[in-house]
C-alpha cells in the first residue's frame, strides 16, 4: 500500500485496503494513515472523510501522523487554513497529542503556497516559543516564498537566522537562493557562489546550473548561458533534458532557429537527453514563422525517435496543417481520436474554418465542444464576433456577446475592439454612443447627457465605457 501511495496509484491503495478488510485482517492506524495520505494527496477529500468515519467506528485513535495528514489536507491541498488551525488547536489538544515539527512545517508550507508569508512567520515564532525546533523543511518554503517575491534582504536575514540556529544549508536552499538572485538580475553574486561552493561546503547539482542558465537566457545572455555547459562538465555534471530545453528556448527567443535546430540534431551524438518538450519548443518557433514543412519534418523525426507527442505537439501540427490549407486533414486528427483535443485545438480549427468560410465545419466543431463539455474562452468568442462582423452580421455579433455576458462571460479589450471595428465598418456607430450589446428597459443618463441603456458601450471622454447591471445597480 505504501509503495502504491508513493507511486500516486490511489485506486490500487484502496483495492488492497478493501481486500485486506475482506480477508478478515483488521487494519491498524498505520494502514489507515497510508490510505488517508493517498486520498488527501489526490484531493479526494469526500473519500478521506468517509475513511475517518470508519476509523471512529472501529475505535481507532488518530496519532500524530493522522493529524499531520489532516493539516496537509487543509493547508497544502485545499487552502482551508481555519480548518488546519482547528485540527492543531482543538482536535489535537482534545486527543492529548502535541504538534511536532512536521505539523508546523506542513502548515507553514501551505501558508507560503497560499501567499501568506507573514502568517507563516507567525507559525515559526510559535514553534520557537513552544520549543519545537524548526528544521530545513520548516525554513525552505518560507525562503522560496520570499525569494519568489524578490524579497532578497528578508531571505538573507532568514538564512542568517538558520545558520545561527544551527540549521546547515543544503543544495535545495542554495538553489532557491540562486533563483531569487537571478530574478533580481544579480548574476555576479550567483557566479561567485558557484565558484566558491566547495569552500563553503556545498556541491551544485544540475538544477543549480539550470536555474542560473534560465536566468541568463531570460535577459538575452545566450553566450553566457552556453558557457555554463563547460562549467557543468568540469563539475562532473551532464546536461539534462531541462538543460537542453532551456537552451533551445533561449535560441528560439533570440531568433537563432538554425542554431536551435543544429543543437537538437547533435543531441544524440553529444549523448544529451531530449524529450517531447524539446521538439515542441522548436516546432512552435517554426510554426510562428509559418514554416509548416519544417514543423512536419520535426514531427516525423520525433516519432522516429520514439517520443510520445502530447496535446501541445498535436496543436502545433494542426496549426501548421491549417496554414498549409489542409483543414480537413487537420480536423481528422481529432475525429480519429489520435489525441484528446483541448480548447486550444478547437480555437485553431474554428478560426481556420471561419477564414475559409466553411460555416458547416464551424458548427460541427461547436457541437463537438458541447459534447466534450469544453467551454468557450475569450479567444473563441472574439473569433466568432470577428467573423460575424466580416460576414455582414454585426447585430448578430452584438446579440451573441450580450447573451454570453448575461451568463457571466467577461469580454476583454480585444473582444470589444473586434465588435467596435465590425460595427464601425457597417455604419452602426451612433453619434456619441452606440448600442453594441443589446438594450434593456431601464435607462440611466451618461455624462454626455444622453439616456444610456444597460448593456451598451458608451463613448465618454474619448473612452468606450461598458455598462452592465448588477442587482439593479448600473456599473460603469
UniProtKB/TrEMBL annotation:
<feature type="repeat" description="PPR">
    <location>
        <begin position="63"/>
        <end position="99"/>
    </location>
</feature>
<feature type="repeat" description="PPR">
    <location>
        <begin position="342"/>
        <end position="376"/>
    </location>
</feature>
<feature type="repeat" description="PPR">
    <location>
        <begin position="100"/>
        <end position="134"/>
    </location>
</feature>
<protein>
    <recommendedName>
        <fullName>Pentatricopeptide repeat-containing protein</fullName>
    </recommendedName>
</protein>
<feature type="repeat" description="PPR">
    <location>
        <begin position="170"/>
        <end position="204"/>
    </location>
</feature>
<feature type="repeat" description="PPR">
    <location>
        <begin position="1"/>
        <end position="27"/>
    </location>
</feature>
<dbReference type="GO" id="GO:0003729">
    <property type="term" value="F:mRNA binding"/>
</dbReference>
<dbReference type="Pfam" id="PF13041">
    <property type="entry name" value="PPR_2"/>
</dbReference>
<feature type="repeat" description="PPR">
    <location>
        <begin position="377"/>
        <end position="411"/>
    </location>
</feature>
<feature type="repeat" description="PPR">
    <location>
        <begin position="275"/>
        <end position="309"/>
    </location>
</feature>
<feature type="repeat" description="PPR">
    <location>
        <begin position="28"/>
        <end position="62"/>
    </location>
</feature>
<feature type="repeat" description="PPR">
    <location>
        <begin position="205"/>
        <end position="239"/>
    </location>
</feature>
<keyword id="KW-0677">Repeat</keyword>
<dbReference type="InterPro" id="IPR011990">
    <property type="entry name" value="TPR-like_helical_dom_sf"/>
</dbReference>
<dbReference type="InterPro" id="IPR002885">
    <property type="entry name" value="PPR_rpt"/>
</dbReference>
<dbReference type="Pfam" id="PF12854">
    <property type="entry name" value="PPR_1"/>
</dbReference>
